[in-house]
Amino acid sequence: MTEELRQAHPTQTSTSWQEFSVPYRFPVSFTQDLFNPDNALFTDTLRQLEPQKRHRFVVFVDEGLAEAQPQLIASIEQYAKAHSQHLELAGKPTTVPGGETIKSDLHFVEKMQKVIVEHHIDRHSYVVGIGGGALLDAVGLVAATSHRGIRHIRIPSTVLSQNDSGVGVKNGVNLFGQKNYIGTFCPPFAVLNDYKFIEQLPYRDKVAGMAEAVKVALIRDPLFYCWLEENADRLATFDAVAMQYMIRRCAELHMAQIGQGGDPFETGSARPLDFGHWSAHRLETLTRYHLRHGEAVAIGIALDTRYSVLKGLLPEGSEERVCFLLEHFGFKLWHPALETKNSAGNLELIQGLTDFREHLGGELTITLLTALGTGIEVHEMDNALVTNAIQWLKQRYSK
């Protein structure tokens, strides 16, 4: 605007719209024995943008995983040495706590940021996280907020992280008693899944991850749900071929929802991939995380499936079918925390609905079922029916 125009319109208001789009694209790979020197996947992943460079990276490893697989850190170092023409491991891999421990104390976030500073990791270097979903969430937050974003490689080590959280775009840690209160939406540079980690998982962790497969099948893929039922015996005994297919298919369905569902960064009010999660998140808190995430999700799935029947959305008997499958996998579909009450005599679990809405904002949006394989979004929950569903689970468990 010229000076002449400014003088003619001294109080004029104008608005210019800034508009641009940023495409996101990252590989989700499945392999066996990722850090075998003969396996080029890790090296090729780091080189995909600048193949001529020698790429620096730091590694954070779940300390529980490092204890269970004492050869892992040495394998990473040997791998980097074998591929030293293209890779530079900046310091010995750092072990940090896994599970909710790493997400419940900001000290660990600061510790990882300090490692990044001390090794001069820049935005063209890589931050590699190896562990379960909680560790990947915390490392992802560190990578996303250091230098306003460092390339992050996720290497999920559990069923739950390979088939669900590892392929997502969310990072975060807990604060003020709320899960993932501090976090970012920032896609990883790559996700590298190694089936070798699954083979060496403890029984409880193998089972816990199957809840997310049941969840996504129930809301998005009736054929996959039928496959889970037909292969329940193989999955319950951790048949390698069945487990690998279950993990891949579950990851594909999560990727499809995130990439094609129209709201990858959750700017709206819907969270379809969180079927069964409003109560699961609350249960984790009420049990001080003695319940694993997958174990709490299994209970949440059973609760919301029964609620769907009580609401008249789902045919009677469907909830028994779902519960039978979850129990066949090894889940216990009851915990006394479901009946915990506050000083006013109200169920503490109901607070999970408020927390669920507040975390995303907007109106309450809960996914329920109209069929085994079809989800529907509702915007209110009847507390009396929730209580009824809880009592149904208790009576069923007591039989």
TrEMBL record:
InterPro entries: Dehydroquinate_synthase (IPR050071), DHQS/DOIS_N (IPR030960), DHQS_C (IPR056179). Residues 209-342 form the 3-dehydroquinate synthase C-terminal domain. It is an enzyme of class 4 (lyase). CDD domains: DHQS-like (cd08198). Pfam families: DHQ_synthase, DHQS_C. GO terms for molecular function: 3-dehydroquinate synthase activity. Its cofactor is NAD(+). Its EC number is 4.2.3.4. GO terms for biological process: amino acid biosynthetic process; aromatic amino acid family biosynthetic process. Residues 95-205 form the 3-dehydroquinate synthase N-terminal domain. Keywords: Amino-acid biosynthesis, Aromatic amino acid biosynthesis, Lyase, NAD. This is 3-dehydroquinate synthase. It comes from Granulosicoccus antarcticus IMCC3135.
